Amino acid sequence: MTDSTTTKETGPEPAEETALLNRLSESLDKIAANEAATADLVSAEVKRAFDRLELGTPSKTTRADPSDRMMDPYTADGYQRADFEMALMIQGGARQLKEGAVDLEFPEEFRAAAQWHIFEDPSTQRIYHADAKGRPTRAMDTAESGFGSQLVGASYARDMWEAARQTDTIINDIRTIVMTDPTTYVPIDGALPEMLFVSESASSSASNYATSKTASNRVTLTAKKFSIQSVWSGELNSDSIIPFTPFLRQQLNESAALHLGSAILNGDETNAGSGNINRDDADPDDTKHYLAWDGIRHYWLVDDSGQGVNEASALDTANINVVRGRLNGTDDDVDAAVGNINWGTNAANLRLVADWATYMALLDTDKVVSVDKYGPNATILTGELGRIFGIPILSPGYATKTEADGKASDTESNNTKGQITIFNPQGFLQGIRGENSLYFDRIQRTDQFLFEVYSRRGFTRFGSNVAGGIYNITV
After folding, report:
1. What is the DSSP-derived secondary structure letter of residue 304?
2. Could you tell me the residue range of the domain that residue 103 belongs to?
3. Are 222 and 149 contained in the same domain?
4. What is the 3 state secondary structure string of 15-31?
5. What does the alpha-carbon distance between residue 473 and residue 194 come to, in Å, rounded to a whole number?
6. pLDDT tens for each residue of 306-338
7. Would 265 be classed as within a structural domain?
8. How do 183-189 and 216-222 pair as beta strands?
9. Of 153, 168, 195, which one is at a domain's C-terminal end?
10. Given 11, 156, 162, 354, which residue has the most CB atoms within 10 angstroms?
């Protein structure tokens, strides 16, 4: 009889099974630990992202950390702080239009960029208006703009005249003071006190020495009101305002530079049918900018005509030094000369202003040194075209040809003679009264909007013999 046996599959021994279970447990623990670490990393990154975006504050959803070196598209396109300010000013003014208020809503990204440039940029400068106790009340640029609370920085008002100074050398070179009153008196030095030769006092009863007075004088600055009236035709909405603002600001800046520079050079208060150096044979319109005060040309053409040279032919460059010599008021009287200011001593401190045709005639001589010949260390003025006898040459658009007497005719074709003005900017003074004001309103019954800029400026001559010129130049 055959024995039968049952085959039984046997597993691992108990010790081996325990080891396998331990290894499986360790693997599961590692997987769990890795998943937890990964989850923690993801959670931390999400938290950092949410912290960066600050999603709890809607106005900050698109703001970037400046340290990230990121740039919004408006700044990338050349938008400056003053542009953001002007856009916000227009927004505030549109809400208060007398005929149909408009609520402009700028894109969130634009508002975030404006927030950074106006409030958060470390280089931001602000003007704070204070109450009677000196406590700041609000920051704005204009005293009464009609919507001043919309304008919170100092940039726009400062930018306009800063741009004017950078654009026009004449404006930039002449010293400017803040006028505390509509009429401001500025004390200046008069003649120097005389030094006396005296005898030695030998006794207590000696006679008193003769005395010499320290002279003093003053000049008067009277604020005159200037205005730019700019009309804009078009639909008022955020899509049109954003691209338009830099263009508008540039136009206002250039206008301020040209007209203020022209007033300083061409100013003549003569408001009659004849006699004004800018319109000798006609009555200027009462709003012409050059009626504000008597300027540099008026001094040597009218106030002291002895400072001028009648060329009556093609330019003889030697007369430039003749005029420069006349910037010293007294050179033939030793008693007077020791107390006199010689405004022509340093050629680099002078300015030669010529109309374009006369400048081109200067180039035909061998006396003009062009800017490229100065060398890398030379200081170049804005608009400087070259130098002659060391004097910087300028030819702004408002320096024009005239008639033979040095005055301009209302008939342009009569103005065929060239003219040169040489002056020392230190002999003149300009003042600014208060801050600029900007108004914005709708022109009723038309699809137009009006921007009004107002500023009060003053100008005066600081001394005698500070300017001279050459007129009746054949060109």
Report:
1. T
2. 66-153
3. no
4. HHHHHHHHHHHHHHHHH
5. 42
6. 999 999 999 999 999 999 999 986 555 666 555
7. yes
8. antiparallel
9. 153
10. 354
